[in-house]
Amino acid sequence: MRSSAVISGVLTAVLLVLVVVGWTPLLSFDRSVTETLHRDAVAEPGLTQVNRVLSDWVWDPWTMRALAAATVVLLWCGRERRLAVWVAATSLLAVGLQQGLKTLVGRDRPQWTDPVDSARFAAFPSGHAMTAMVTCGLLLWVLALRWRGEWRGWGAVTSVAVVSVLGVGWTRVYLGVHWPSDVLGGWLLGWCCVATAVLTYRWSERRVPRAGPGTSDGEGRRMGGTE
Questions:
Q1: Which terminus of the chain has fewer Cβ atoms in its 10 Å neighbourhood, N or C?
Q2: Predicted local distance difference test score (pLDDT) of residue 1
Q3: Do 158 and 99 form a contact (C-beta atoms < 8 A)?
Q4: Does the structure show a pLDDT above 80 at 212?
């Protein structure tokens, strides 16, 4: 997991630099893909509407944040309070990082004379893509950490998470409100946040003494065989 965090962080930094300096091959690729998809979106209003529903409702950042909030509540009520704090803190920090980078980079979104959707604020990184990656990554981590061995729906949930992360990135480019590199940046930065959360949580567990057999703390009872 450490190498995953480092690699995703480095790739995010490299992509950020390329976006800021306006590296011509990247900008040309972004423009070519976005213009091609925009022509399809204009020509296929039915498919465009499906993408709008998926992007603006099913995979909207607020939908994802609601899932993260529900997870935090369930963990807290189940006395998994350290894990609940980690999920909440990671989600909040990811939002702050995302908004901060958008402000600092200030990248313009694609502009069209015949737009099929609209979005405000700066483009890089994609908030939809990053929020989906952070939320789905955290949910899968929680499931793997606590219930993977007891739950048969693991494969189905993993598939839904992967489709959601990839799908929301597709919708943002298809609807012409993001460049492909915005989406890639959101995915990379989101995964870096998840990997860092996992690493710091493991570090925190190693520093906390394990509870004895008679403890009433739910988290202590689970710590012996969950990693």
A1: C
A2: 80
A3: no
A4: no
3-state secondary structure of 136: helix
Cα separation of 149 and 145, whole Å? 9
Q: With CA atoms as reference, report the closest residue to 12 among 181, 128, 178.
A: 181
The two structure tokens encoding residue 199 = 């690493």
How far, CA to CA in Å, does 24 sit from each of 156, 176, 178, 205? 41, 20, 17, 46
pLDDT at 155: 83
pTM: 0.89
Q: Where are the alpha helices (DSSP H) in the chain?
A: 2-21, 24-43, 45-53, 61-77, 81-105, 127-146, 154-174, 180-207, 218-222
The yes-or-no verdict on residue 15 having pLDDT over 70 is: yes
Distance CA 197, CA 192 (A): 9
Contacts of 203 (CB under 8 A, 6+ apart): none
Note the pLDDT of residue 208.
Answer: 65
Q: What is the DSSP letter of 120?
A: -
- Give the side-chain half-sphere CA count within 13 A for 37: 24
